[in-house]
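In this supplementary section we document a worked example of the pipeline. Step one takes a protein sequence of length 76 as its only input; no multiple sequence alignment statistics are reported here. Step two produces a three-dimensional model, which step three serialises into structure tokens for compact storage. The input and output of this example are shown verbatim.
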Amino acid sequence: MRWLLPPRDGWLIRQEQQVGDVVSKDIYEEGKRAKANGTSDQGNPYRAGSQESLDWLEGYTAGEAEPSATGPDTDP
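The serialised model returned by step three reads:
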């Protein structure tokens, strides 16, 4: 999450980090390797909620379908 200060009105605007934003490509790749090696997602070595943990999980789940908040698609 970043805080931005627009030049004209002086109000702080909070910009949420988008899902899929990876800060550390090395940690992302580490997560991908862990999945390829059969490591459980419980093997994430980073503190829960940290950016490093998020990057690792992004790598671990790379290529998986994104879950839908509305449930599975039932269209034929």
